[in-house]
Design a protein that fits this description.
There is one protein chain. The protein has an eight-stranded parallel β-sheet. It has twelve helices and eight strands. The radius of gyration is 18 Å and the shape is globular. 45% of the residues lie in helices and 9% in strands. Helix 11 crosses helix 12. Strand 7, helix 8 and strand 8 form a beta-alpha-beta unit. The mean pLDDT is 96. Keywords: Lyase. InterPro entries: Aldolase_TIM, DapA-like. It comes from Streptomyces rugosispiralis.
Length: 303
């Protein structure tokens, strides 16, 4: 069970967002609330609305704020809501963190500045501003998209100043887990990419901000519990499950991860649907591959 005094721990799903099939692809808030409840019923510990999987970049301010409120209202007692508060400006990020707190969220997930390759002073200043909202801040290291790398040294500085409580590690370099633990022993490590779940789980991660539980929550939550239990017997169970799921989990680290996960959701009988532009539906061999790999996992009985 997650530590509810640390509401960023456990399996938090970076939720996909359903849209109505109309000209504007308007947000299906009722469908989103149902998905939040579904994830809670299937063993997840919380959700992260307004992440990249939630296509926050395409939402209006009104839509983005309402998504957070819907998630909080749909969440059962003890189920966490940790919204993404990414924005070009530090003040804007802090305002999104304040909105999250007003809605009832207990923590936020914050990228570094992503409008340009920010230097150290700008990154520290950004997190100082977000921390002013008063909620625990989980840093999100995604140097592939932001071009800003939250190195172990920089994370230690942010944590030492009391600006962050954890990091979602999405660099893909699993070796960093050990240096982060050495430089910032009190900083919680959260798995940031589905396809390094086992490696970071063994390295001491206490949470997972996850993509594929959107489609197959039972199997992925079980995998997380096995990978982080510290039991050799559980590791023996985790390895074959990880191998079976890994072809799907790898999509979480690809450019087309939003479309891929939504395709898998549709095949699993859930509400995936279309993405808003500029993301378009997968086609050709890429679409066929997602379908093939998803159907293989479902045929094995994983849900």
């Amino acid at each position: 069970m997650p530590d509810f005094s640390a509401p960023w721990r456990g399996v938090h799903v970076a939720t996909a967002l359903p849209f109505h099939d109309d000209d504007e692809l308007s947000v299906d808030y009722e469908g989103y609330a149902a998905h939040v409840r579904f994830l809670a019923e299937h063993g997840c510990d919380g959700v992260c609305p307004n992440g990249s999987l939630g296509e926050y970049q395409t939402l209006t301010d009104e839509e983005r704020a309402r998504v957070v409120r819907v998630a909080v209202e749909a969440a059962p007692e003890g189920f966490g809501v940790m919204p993404g508060v990414a924005a070009y400006g530090a003040v804007e990020s802090r305002r999104w963190a304040e909105q999250a707190g007003e809605a009832g969220a207990r923590a936020v997930l914050a990228l570094p500045p992503n409008s340009y390759r920010a230097e150290r002073e700008a990154v520290v200043g950004h997190y100082r501003e977000v921390a002013r909202a008063g909620l625990p801040v989980v840093a999100y290291n995604n140097p592939h998209d932001t071009k800003v790398d939250l190195t172990p040294e920089l994370l230690a500085e942010l944590h030492g100043e009391g600006l962050i409580v954890a990091v979602k590690e999405f660099s893909g370099d699993v070796r960093r887990a050990y240096e982060i633990a050495e430089r910032a022993p009190g900083l919680d490590l959260l798995i940031g990419a589905d396809d390094v779940l086992l490696e970071l789980g063994l390295a001491g991660a206490v949470g997972w901000i996850a993509g594929y539980p959107n489609a197959i929550p039972d199997a992925t939550v079980e995998l997380y519990r096995l990978a982080t239990s510290g039991s050799g017997a559980d590791l023996e169970k985790a390895l074959p499950l990880y191998r079976a799921l890994h072809p799907l989990l790898r999509w979480d680290s690809r450019t087309e991860f939003v479309q891929a996960i939504k395709v898998s959701m549709d095949l699993a009988g859930l509400r995936g649907g279309a993405c808003r532009p500029p993301r378009s539906r997968l086609a050709g061999e890429m679409a066929a591959r997602v379908v093939r790999e998803t159907e293989t996992v479902l045929a094995l009985g994983y849900r």
